[in-house]
Design a protein that fits this description.
about 20% strand; three-stranded antiparallel sheet; eight-stranded mixed sheet; single chain; alpha+beta
Length: about 425
């Protein structure tokens, strides 16, 4: 969430940054209502001062208040109540308008309306170019008995799938391997969060109200299925004050993620690239504002390190203003080449959100003992996301005989080095 101070003091800059995202922000209305709210507060303070003045005068005279004084104080009390109600209504309107505003893109984010303006920052490795036709995963998976698309559709409908045998084991191995690296090498604390969260938790992360149509909701309990563990990790310290010396806080979680993907209707309908339920390992950090740029660079390195260990050719892509997420101030996507689908697949999206999320859920920290509180910055990123890693492994590892070679780093976790043709 942006601050009203940002909007009032830097209106032109805030407007320019939001317009670069394709927004038409109601900043003038917000400022007008805020001025009205401030005026109401000042009027209320004056009336309270008048009430105190009359009360002191009556006390000093040691006489009963006159009928005129009683009438005046009754009118003052009623007017104070009216002003307080008007001020609450104004604040409620401001909150409603502010909660719908996305984060401000940083100055180094490329300006553009959509993904066409994204910039390739770096490419490492060359795409696999085998001398045979590479089967896409939606063919190799059923043939090898690792992916059952028909069973998933039969159980739950379109864009659901079943992993079986070596496919299920490979996914489990990937999750365990990634968590071990993040915890043992990268210094994250592992978290296992709830998959169902309250509305306030969704709002704090920036998913509500903007993305309500893309989220699964249980009407009876009023709980929401998380679209990513970022939602839960962001809420770990909601409403708390993180004491001096505690930052940075680095968390990692594996969770199932749930998304309706309504905005993607008709796209990527084959295979398991875009589905309603999937697994993901998520990195999340709370840091001091001066450290957020360095933390962003570190997290990009942690995601690309996993890609390199798996033997993928990958690109780092900086997203343009019109393509970054609602809560993000800057985002780098990590995409890997997959020869069966013949495209670069996003396996990680690293974002810095500055104080946007912590302001929404009132997470604060003390820079020094007994100092006043500030809002820390948050960063999040996939480390990595499945099932697109599965797709890339199956298609990059496909051999001419139809088997799939598993990267050596996963052998201790899978217990096998190759997925063979059944029978």
């Amino acid at each position: 969430m942006l601050s009203i101070q940002q909007i009032v003091e830097n209106t032109d800059r805030v407007r320019e940054r939001l317009v670069s995202r394709g927004e038409d922000p109601p900043l003038d209305r917000i400022i007008e209502i805020d001025m009205r709210r401030r005026s109401l507060i000042a009027d209320g303070d004056q009336l309270r001062a008048r009430r105190n003045e009359v009360s002191k005068a009556i006390g000093a005279s040691k006489q009963k208040p006159s009928p005129e004084q009683i009438a005046e104080m009754r009118d003052v009390g009623e007017r104070i109540k009216e002003i307080e109600a008007e001020a609450r209504e104004a604040q409620s309107t401001i909150d409603e308008l502010m909660i719908a505003l996305p984060n401000l893109p940083l100055d180094d984010v490329p300006v553009g309306p959509d993904e066409s303006a994204n910039v390739i920052v770096e490419q490492v490795g060359e795409p696999v170019q085998p001398d045979f036709e590479v089967e896409p995963h939606w063919d190799s998976g059923p043939r090898l008995g690792t992916i059952n698309l028909e069973a998933g559709a039969r159980m739950s409908g379109a864009r659901f799938y079943v992993l079986s045998g070596a496919g299920a084991q490979l996914q489990r191995a990937l999750i365990s391997w990634m968590l071990d690296i993040h915890v043992r090498t990268n210094g994250y604390t592992e978290i296992y969060p709830p998959l169902l969260v309250r509305q306030e938790t969704m709002t704090g992360s920036g998913n509500l109200p903007k993305f309500k149509s893309n989220l699964y909701h249980d009407d009876e309990t009023d709980l929401w299925l998380i679209p990513t563990a970022e939602v839960a990790l962001n809420a770990l310290h909601a409403g708390e004050i993180i004491e001096a010396g505690m930052l940075p806080l680095k968390y990692v979680a594996h969770s199932t993620s749930f998304r309706k993907e309504d905005t993607a209707a008709g796209r990527d309908t084959r295979g398991i690239k875009r589905v309603h339920q999937f697994e993901k390992v998520e990195m999340f950090r709370f840091v001091e504002p001066d450290d957020s740029e360095g933390a962003f660079t570190e997290m990009v390195g942690e995601a690309t390190d996993l890609c390199a260990r798996l033997g993928f050719a990958y690109r780092i892509v900086q997203l343009a203003t019109g393509d970054i997420g609602f809560q993000a101030a800057k985002t780098f996507d990590i995409v890997v080449w997959s020869p069966g689908v013949e495209e670069w697949l996003e396996v990680s999206s690293i974002s810095t959100c500055e104080a946007f999320q912590t302001r929404r859920n009132n997470t604060r920290y003390r820079p020094e003992p007994r100092a006043g509180t500030k809002f820390p910055h948050t960063l999040n990123g996939s480390g990595l996301a499945l099932p697109r890693v599965m797709i890339a492994l199956m298609e990059n590892g496909l051999q001419e005989d139809g088997s799939i070679v598993i990267p050596e780093v996963l052998h201790p976790y899978t217990g096998f080095d190759r997925i063979e043709n059944p029978g």
